[in-house]
Amino acid sequence: MLLEEEKKWILKNVPNGEKIINMKNPNDVIGELCDYSVAVMTPDDEPTEKTYEAEAIIDRIVASDDDDWPEWDGDN
User: Is this prediction's pTM over 0.90?
Assistant: First the structure.
């Protein structure tokens, strides 16, 4: 489950943030944040601060216990 500060950051920075914070499958959230982290790289494919911030959320989701997420029925 996303932490409150992660939700706020996603809503402020990521397109379709509302959709992302309401996703029930952590793998879908990770996929959306991965896409975003690549999209905000510099034209020379260098990471930006937003890239690192998105990747920090991804890392925390991966490290968290799946039991922290609501039961997923296959739909977002």
Answer: no
